Amino acid sequence: MTLRARLVQLFAVLTLAVGSLVALPAQPAAAANGCNGSVIAWNEWRDSAGRLAAKTYYYDEGANTCVNLVAQGIYYGQSKYMAIKLCDSYNTGCVTDSGTFLYYAGPVRRPADVCMWAVSTMKNSAGTTIVNKSTYVPPCN
């Protein structure tokens, strides 16, 4: 087989392989932090030095809203206290995930049919509060 024939054959195999990859249907992926669905919003929280410390992510899972708090930057991978709390606007039926985590707190879920608010809390490894914020969960006003 000539070099030209081998190159043509290789090109045909690569084209078929790439075409097969492109033709595969896209599958919805679960986030690495336990929520599924689409990210509808997020908040960024900074430490006292102005560095990005954490993000609170809000996901639309259809019947549920899913929320988690993910450490960022120098805090990612450090053992620290983190908590995420999700409540309806009447402060009833709250769900919380808290403890000592390396990467994220949550996920926590509530039915998506009411306005909700989330409380994000994170302390550094020395116990100093870095994040203590409450926000309405989109699309609440």
How does this model look, in words?
- By secondary structure, the protein is mainly beta.
- Helices cover 15% and strands 47% of the residues.
- The chain has 1 helix and 8 strands; from the N terminus they run H-E-E-E-E-E-E-E-E.
- The chain has a 4-stranded antiparallel beta sheet, with no helix packed on it. Strands 5-4-7-8 form a 4-stranded antiparallel beta sheet, with no helix packed on it.
- A hairpin with a 6-residue loop joins strand 4 and strand 5.
- The chain is globular and about 40 Å long.
- It starts with a helix and ends in a 5-residue tail after the last strand.
- About 15% of the residues have low confidence.
Brief descriptors of the model:
4-stranded antiparallel sheet, mainly beta, 8 strands, 1 helix, 141 residues
Per DSSP, the total helix count is 1
Strand order of the largest sheet: 1-2-3-6
Q: Give the CA-based shape.
A: globular
| Quaternary organization | single chain
Quantity of strands, as a count: 8
Secondary-structure-derived class: mainly beta
Summarize the biggest pleated sheet: 4 strands, antiparallel
- SSE pattern: HEEEEEEEE
Q: Could you give a short description of this structure?
A:
15% of the residues lie in helices and 47% in strands. It contains one helix and eight strands; from the N terminus they run αββββββββ.
